[in-house]
Amino acid sequence: xxxxxxxxxxxxxxxxxxxxxxxxxxxxxxxxxxxxxxxxxxxxxxxxxxxxxxxxxxxxxxxxxxxxxxxxxxxxxxxxxxxxxxxxxxxxxxxxxxxxxxxxxxxxxxxxxxxxxxxxxxxxxxxxxxxxxxxxxxxxxxxxxxxxxxxxxxxxxxxxxxxxxxxxxxxxxxxxxxxxxxxxxxxxxxxxxxxxxxxxxxxxxxxxxxxxxxxxxxxxxxxxxxxxxxxxxxxxxxxxxxxxxxxxxxxxxxxxxxxxxxxxx
Length: 265
Prior knowledge:
The chain is of the alpha/beta class. It has two domains: 2-118, NAD(P)-binding Rossmann-like Domain (Rossmann fold), CATH 3.40.50.720; 126-241, Dihydrodipicolinate Reductase, domain 2. Helix content is 32%, strand content 27%. The strands form three sheets. Strands 3-2-1-4-5-6 form a six-stranded parallel sheet, with helices on both faces. It has a five-stranded mixed sheet with strand order 8-9-7-10-11. The longest helix has 13 residues, at 71-83.
């Protein structure tokens, strides 16, 4: 299978490292902006020697597109690929909090008679949550708890010194849509949970900066006619990006391997 990888940052590079020896998976193209081409070529030389570094997904010879670059990449690269009939895997699920983008993805996939897959990323239980929606789902709450330094560069810094926190501090409480708008680089889990369950406006989110933790903690609580469940995950952060759980990369690799594996669960 010939793959085009969009993005060669922390997630993209870690993904390349994990699949470089996988039989049946060949990264044929790495898509990055012009200013990132030199760095991407260095990564390609080390981890994907056969890949061309380009600014657009090739129009031929690509069996699957994997996005790991954010909202702009979905609009610029994923939508056109879907319209051409190329299936896509999207890692930046938080981008789908933008009004109309989920509908655009669906429309593009229908036009190309193909499919776009949103990976679960840093959270588990998405299969159970989606099944619960069918069986009757009333409430869903997501709580994200990370070390203070993981919230740097976000609105969490407004009015507080993250380095000086001595106790857990709630930095946001509201809907998943509001969380995605204010914390876009931390929004993937909240968006994934909401898209699998009650939607962006009916899923409640609480974000916490906690100096007592070293891991990224994700908790989902769901209840309804189906019953109820609580899920807590303690994920190690990605070494190159503490805002991202390493499990996000593993989830993308699992999705990739599932495209060529003879048995998938």
